[in-house]
């Protein structure tokens, strides 16, 4: 057997490193040497010991940036015989000096507030309202181009939301509820371990696995890249509008928008590429401008109202105005849900801080604190602005200073609040007015203390959101590519500088944003982007629920203010909001996510993050296994559960493939190996090969488990496997073993062990199947040769590379090993071919079933199962049964009737009525030559010798079992005559009574029965029914 060596030969517990990013690096050792046992130290216990006290460095992942990963003493170092060794040296670790890291205020709070406030001024929402058919938009103010102006956006939101004061509060609160629940779930996830770069992608992928994370990560990065274009176009629209007011257009509106947009995105790219420190400084400047603009609005509402502003509907704070605006006044086709769909994207942006999680000093503390506070501050801001405008501006105003109320007029009907304040705006009920909070696009300018600051705030909102998205997209893409989920995107994983800046990611984000700026029409893609963000929120909530539901011991979030059912509600709420905003965009989002999910599932990336999906799978398996224990066995539900003695999973592929063909996805198949020898050596070899063999089974798509035991003897090892394998009802019931081809030269201990295993299997009521292939089953020597040749080829490749680097020519020292697998096959072509014969699709032919003894039906059931498999579907069943001379037709009809009741179809039924005929003399001579070396001669010595050598054959034994011996010889003759061309022969296996039939005689029976035939499978059930004709 081969020894599997990890770094330094240490036995690595898979639970030791949850992420399995890479194997640990052991200091002072090479890959070919065992790790040096570390010396004892004076510990906290006051004496020398190899044991170490608990320390955080033992639990770090390989390549951890926050500290050097220490390696604790292995169990073998503490348990094995002590060896005095030298002290191992420590490896200096780069402390990461010079890396820029942000705290929770600059890294999370500022970014989230800017992104949420920026979305409030998001022009896409205004465009939706502009297209909804507001007849109140005058012709000279009708918005042109791809997207509405930001000022129009802001006023439209006041029209449709802030004047529905009562329901407007509900809209804002409901939006905050969705984001708050998501933030609580995100806080739980990010405090359940160290959070690296990648934000939402990292959290979802580590919680739900690469399939969910890989699918949402790609579309989330793309959404951020396109969002850059949308924010920049919004900024450009406002600039172009100002240019138009001063008659300074360069070309025309649409082309000027493209020019300004591209110049802006180049400027933003320069800030981002300059480094996170510059980007953070720019965000601070933009935040200050935006805060001043917001304060400007609030301050303006407390200043005395100029008389010139009253004709436009602004009167300052007034209870009558507030009460009049409280009731909803939906106009046109607008409803609560349409208004909600317009406002909700303004509440997004809560992932702006999480997206740069790799650049935070303490992501676990910063993300929950900064994001929650940002939601509270921005939510209060939205409510404050909404209430201020609703309490000071009437819905409709004429803008005519002469529309005054005649003293003594009774105020009723429409515009009552304005009437009480001395203005007659009742004409707005009959015709569209151009002023008031429902009509005037300059309400914010009208209310504010200094109008130009609103434009500055608009610039700040759009640029800050664009900059945040420009930084987020490359960071998420880089984290996704580092995990190598999509191999084609691997090039974007590379980072530059001490901050590991994703320069390539910046460039691809820049290209995408420029492309969409050039297209100009963002209206179609806008709903999809909003749904992309919501899909991320939904999966974050579901990740928290799923991790809590799995109840994995590894789910221990430091943040306790979450609830699994609240997270599930949040996930469902996000899905509902997706359809409220845009149903077709929601369907498209799901379709894209499902396609990416299926792609990642098919590719099966080689990662193991200990996801909650794995935990739930384990819990489900345990639950189902326990449920099975409450179900009594029934013959209709019998399935062959095979324990295959293959040795190493690669050593007997034909045996494994046949077992796998029978069990496939519908039964249990365990491939077993027994390590024989001194316990210390056998256990070491066994531990080294466990993961290697299971990995080979998985890669070659054999649906089987690998099990191994270490014992002093082979028979004892198999006996333990027969007794202890399986779990509950999922327990093997059939032993599959290869025929011992070289039994005549193997030695008595080996033969005794082999026959003893068959006896043990019968004792434990197993069914037995013995496979014989003339070329043999064991290809372990070919496996060794192949691995040696592959190793030699690798050495040759490394040598060639080294020679070429030094300017020399490569030397073909191992040139002969280039095509290793072909050469191995040529060394033993027949064995190599035979070892793969059951892996391939079987040609048209027959499965010949010689059902000689009723064993409960296993001899018939297994070949029937084979015919239902894809590889064997072209093989027809032929049934051979023994019969009495003169009644062949009766026996055939009886068997035909039985098969019909079993619903088993066969192409032919043959009754053998000459099975009792004596075998030919030449056949008997072959048997005699076969057993001659194992016979005891002489009547006087046989009794005593038999006691001392029970495995030997005596004349008395041959005489007692003469008929049974002759039957095996005769059966081989019949098999030669009738089944020489079969794809597979299935024959009822003879049973040897314990302590009556010697081991060598029994082996002779099996040998003579199956020699010189196509692949033959001997089967003997445990004589309990596995077939029934009852429903």
UniProtKB/TrEMBL annotation:
Record has RNA-binding as a keyword: no
Membrane topology recorded in Swiss-Prot or TrEMBL: Multi-pass membrane protein
* GO CC, alphabetical: apical plasma membrane
TM ranges are 108-129, 167-195, 216-239, 259-278, 285-305, 336-358, 370-394, 449-473, 506-526, 532-550, 562-586
Q: Where is it localised?
A: Cell membrane
Looking at the record's lineage, which domain of life comes first? Eukaryota
- Which InterPro entries does this one have? AA-permease/SLC12A_dom, AA_permease_N, SLC12_C, SLC12A1/SLC12A2, SLC12A_fam
Q: Which UniProt keywords apply?
A: Cell membrane, Chloride, Glycoprotein, Ion transport, Membrane, Phosphoprotein, Potassium, Potassium transport, Sodium, Sodium transport, Symport, Transmembrane, Transmembrane helix, Transport
Q: Which GO terms describe its biological process?
A: cell volume homeostasis; chloride ion homeostasis; potassium ion homeostasis; potassium ion import across plasma membrane; sodium ion homeostasis
Q: What range(s) does the SLC12A transporter C-terminal domain occupy? A: 804-1031
Q: Which GO terms describe its molecular function?
A: sodium:potassium:chloride symporter activity
Q: Which reaction does it catalyse?
A: K(+)(out) + 2 chloride(out) + Na(+)(out) = K(+)(in) + 2 chloride(in) + Na(+)(in)
Q: Which residues form the Amino acid permease/ SLC12A domain?
A: 167-643
Q: Where is the Amino acid permease N-terminal domain?
A: 36-86
Region annotated Disordered sits at 1-35
Q: Which family does it belong to?
A: Belongs to the SLC12A transporter family.
Name under which the protein is recorded: Solute carrier family 12 member 1
Give the organism the record lists: Gouania willdenowi
């Amino acid at each position: 057997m081969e020894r599997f060596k990890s770094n330094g030969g240490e036995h690595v517990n898979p639970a030791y490193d949850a992420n399995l990013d890479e194997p640990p690096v052991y200091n002072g050792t090479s890959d070919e040497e065992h790790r040096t046992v570390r010396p004892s130290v004076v510990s906290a216990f006051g004496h020398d010991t190899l044991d170490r006290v608990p320390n955080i460095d033992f639990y770090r992942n390989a390549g951890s940036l926050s500290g050097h990963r220490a390696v604790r003493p292995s169990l073998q170092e503490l348990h094995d015989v002590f060896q005095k060794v030298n002290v191992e040296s420590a490896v200096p670790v780069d402390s990461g000096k010079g890396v820029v890291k942000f705290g929770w205020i600059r890294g999370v709070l500022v970014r989230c507030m800017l992104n949420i406030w920026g979305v409030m001024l998001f022009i896409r929402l205004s465009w939706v309202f502009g297209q909804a058919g507001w007849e109140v938009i005058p012709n000279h103010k009708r918005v042109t181009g791809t997207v509405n102006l930001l000022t129009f956006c802001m006023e439209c939101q006041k029209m449709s939301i802030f004047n529905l004061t009562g329901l407007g509060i509900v809209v804002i609160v409901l939006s905050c509820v969705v984001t708050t629940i998501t933030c609580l779930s995100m806080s739980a996830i990010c405090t359940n371990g160290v959070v690296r770069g990648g934000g939402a992608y990292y959290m979802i992928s580590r919680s739900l696995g690469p399939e969910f994370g890989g699918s949402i990560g790609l579309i989330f990065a793309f959404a951020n890249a396109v969002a850059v274009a949308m924010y920049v176009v919004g900024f450009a629209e406002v600039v172009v509008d100002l240019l138009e007011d001063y008659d300074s257009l360069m070309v025309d509106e649409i082309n000027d928008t493209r020019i300004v947009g591209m110049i802006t995105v180049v400027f933003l790219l320069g800030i981002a590429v300059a480094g996170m420190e510059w980007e953070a400084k720019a965000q601070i400047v933009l935040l200050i401008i935006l805060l001043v603009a917001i304060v400007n609005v609030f301050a303006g509402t407390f200043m005395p109202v100029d008389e010139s502003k009253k004709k436009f509907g602004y009167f300052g704070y007034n209870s009558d105005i507030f009460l009049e605006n409280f009731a909803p006044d939906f106009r046109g086709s607008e409803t609560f849900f349409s208004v909600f769909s317009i406002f909700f994207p303004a509440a997004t942006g809560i992932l702006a801080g999480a997206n740069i999680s790799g650049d935070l000093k303490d992501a676990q503390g910063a993300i929950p604190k900064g994001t929650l506070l940002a939601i509270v501050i921005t939510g209060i801001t939205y409510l404050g602005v909404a209430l201020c405008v609703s309490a000071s501006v009437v819905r409709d105003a004429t803008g005519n200073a002469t529309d005054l109320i005649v003293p003594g007029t009774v105020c009723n009907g429409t515009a009552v609040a304005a009437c009480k304040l001395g203005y007659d705006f009742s004409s707005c009920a009959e015709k569209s007015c151009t002023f008031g909070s429902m009509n005037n696009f300059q309400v914010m300018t009208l209310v504010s203390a200094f109008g130009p600051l609103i434009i500055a705030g608009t610039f700040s909102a759009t640029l800050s959101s664009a900059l945040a998205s420009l930084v987020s997209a490359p960071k998420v893409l880089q984290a996704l590519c580092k995990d190598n989920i999509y191999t084609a995107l691997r090039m974007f994983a590379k980072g530059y500088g001490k901050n590991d800046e994703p320069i390539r990611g910046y460039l691809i984000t820049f290209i995408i944003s420029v492309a969409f700026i050039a297209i100009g029409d963002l209206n179609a893609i806008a709903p999809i982007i909003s749904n992309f963000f919501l899909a991320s929120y939904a999966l974050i909530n579901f990740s928290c629920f799923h991790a809590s539901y799995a109840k994995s011991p590894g789910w221990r979030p430091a943040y306790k203010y979450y609830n699994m059912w609240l997270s599930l509600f949040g996930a469902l709420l996000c899905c509902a909001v997706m359809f409220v905003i845009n149903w077709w965009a929601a369907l498209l989002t799901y379709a894209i996510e499902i396609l990416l999910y299926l792609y990642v599932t098919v590719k099966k990336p080689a990662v193991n993050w200990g996801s909650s999906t794995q935990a739930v799978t384990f819990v489900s398996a345990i639950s189902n296994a326990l449920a099975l224990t409450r179900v009594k066995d029934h013959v209709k539900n019998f399935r062959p559960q095979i324990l295959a003695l293959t040795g190493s999973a690669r050593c007997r592929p034909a045996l494994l493939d046949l077992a796998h063909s029978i069990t496939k996805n519908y039964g249990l198949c365990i491939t077993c190996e027994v390590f024989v020898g001194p316990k210390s050596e056998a256990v070491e070899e066994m531990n080294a090969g466990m993961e290697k063999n299971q990995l080979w089974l998985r890669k070659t798509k054999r649906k089987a488990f690998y099990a191994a035991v270490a014992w002093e003897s082979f028979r004892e090892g198999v006996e333990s496997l027969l007794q202890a394998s399986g779990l509950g009802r999922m327990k093997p019931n059939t032993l599959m073993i290869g025929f011992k081809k070289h039994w005549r030269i193997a030695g008595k201990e080996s033969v005794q062990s082999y026959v003893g295993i068959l006896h043990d299997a019968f004792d434990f009521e197993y069914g037995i199947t013995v496979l014989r292939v003339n070329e043999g089953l064991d290809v372990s020597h070919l496996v060794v040769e192949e691995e040696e040749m592959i190793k030699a080829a690798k050495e040759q490749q490394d040598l060639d590379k080294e020679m070429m680097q030094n300017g020399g020519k490569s030397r073909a020292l191992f040139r002969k090993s280039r095509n290793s697998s072909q050469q191995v096959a040529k060394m033993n072509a027949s064995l190599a071919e035979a070892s793969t014969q059951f892996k391939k699709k079987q040609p048209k032919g027959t499965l010949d079933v010689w059902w000689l003894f009723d064993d409960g039906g296993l001899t018939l059931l297994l070949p029937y199962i084979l015919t239902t498999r894809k590889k064997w579907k072209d093989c027809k069943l032929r049934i051979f049964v023994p019969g009495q001379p003169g009644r062949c037709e009766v026996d055939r009809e009886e068997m035909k009737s039985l098969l019909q009741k079993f619903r088993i179809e066969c192409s032919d039924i043959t009754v053998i009525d000459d099975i009792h005929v004596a075998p030919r003399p030449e056949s008997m001579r072959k048997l005699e030559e076969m057993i001659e070396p194992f016979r005891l001669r002489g009547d006087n010595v046989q009794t005593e010798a038999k006691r001392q050598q029970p495995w030997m054959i005596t004349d008395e034994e041959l005489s007692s079992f003469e008929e049974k011996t002759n039957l095996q010889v005769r059966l081989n003759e019949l098999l030669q005559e009738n089944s020489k061309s079969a794809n597979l022969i299935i024959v009822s296996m003879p049973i040897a009574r314990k302590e009556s039939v010697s081991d060598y005689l029994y082996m002779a029976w099996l040998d003579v029965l199956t020699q010189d035939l196509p692949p033959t499978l001997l089967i003997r059930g445990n004589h309990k029914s596995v077939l029934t004709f009852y429903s």
